Amino acid sequence: MLALAIGLPVSMLVDDIPKEAPVYLNIPGDLWLRTYAASQEATPPLEGVVQQMFQSFVPDNIAYAVADNQLLAVLVVSIVVGYLVEDESSSILRAAREVERMVTIVVTFIIQCSALGVFSLILSNILKLDPATMGRNLGVLIASTLSSMAIHLFVAVPIIFFALTRMNPYVYWLKNSRAWITAWGSASSAATLSISLDCARDRGISKTVRSFSVPLGCLINMDGTAIYFPIVVVFLARTQGMTLSVVDYVIITAAATLSSIGTTPIPSSSLALSIMIAGLVGVPVTGMMGVVFAIDWLLDRFRTALNVSGDLFGAMVVYKKTGIEDETEDDLVMEGQPMQEEAPRYNRSMA
Questions:
Q1: Transmembrane region positions (predicted)?
Q2: Which of 3, 6, 115, 123 is surrounded by the fewest CB atoms within 10 Å?
Q3: CB neighbours of residue 88 within 10 Å
């Protein structure tokens, strides 16, 4: 939530693109008229915002929700159905496994063709857009993302870390440089997990705490991803002349929180979820998303470095607040200290 509190306001500062954008982006005129009319409407009351958000969780027709790409509603229904299914031989589970098998084959083929697809999307936008305009908009996207991450890493997190541990957060972060540099290079929290555990051990965090908090943070603590989701969705909306309402921002906040927790710790895994969140607030995914794909390899490295840094900050906070210690023989060996040999016991039969 702290990451969202930083990323969402920064995303709202993204400027609209110039007047000639409808020509470059080939956006229908009626879309601009509807957007302008919507921007003139009164802001709905808070209770209406909350009611609309919760209504979006429950679809009127699950088949229509699947066809209309209402993934959040589909996710809620899937959780309920999965909880109610008791027998593993259920026909619903068999159907789900068969669909999963077919989808996996299709997705694998699409991934193999992704390089050509991304190149085609980028090429079409380069031919439509003014390079200066596109470069300026991408500069805003990159600058807003990196500035939000910098505020989170160097201002918000250090304040909380110092308040809870009374340690210098910047010295602690620099001592863990091996972890976040590896994360930046690999763009994967999972690939950096072993090094993160080593850094936590070197900082004196007990084995019980580090073996629990660091892997858990690798799975659910995605600060950089939570910052990136609202920024990229607002970027897609603004580049198409759309103005998001209060309801849209509430939905983005809720979806970004849940999606960042469920993001897999592999490179660029958040791109698919960005498309899902954009669909929840009615933002069309146009060719500009291909340009976002093209630069995501760079932004993903900074997101991963921030995620790993947050894992190590969190591990130290848990260690300091719980005070759990475990000086076991395994820890002594990992720390490079010699094990104490057990004194020989006296055996009466040998006397």
A1: 62-85, 105-126, 138-164, 212-237, 249-266, 272-299
A2: 115
A3: 7
